[in-house]
Write a structure and sequence with these properties.
Length: 63
């Protein structure tokens, strides 16, 4: 059986601009998030490093 919580790359945040009627997207992925496989959703907290997020996953998974 797989773990309930796992690390995922954060969802890209779009911070685009409009110039001359053309939209310019500068989507960037910032950090990592924890995904809850039971609820099938990402948790709202984000972590700058994968190891930070993995430590939190391990804590939540009871390791």
């Amino acid at each position: 059986m797989s773990d309930r919580y796992e690390v995922k790359s954060a969802i890209p945040l779009e911070s685009g601009s409009v110039r001359d009627g053309v939209r310019h997207s500068t989507a960037a992925v910032r950090g990592f998030q924890i995904f809850d496989n039971f609820e099938n959703k990402r948790l709202p907290d984000s972590y700058m490093s994968r190891s930070e997020a993995q430590d939190e996953c391990d804590r939540r998974n009871g390791r």
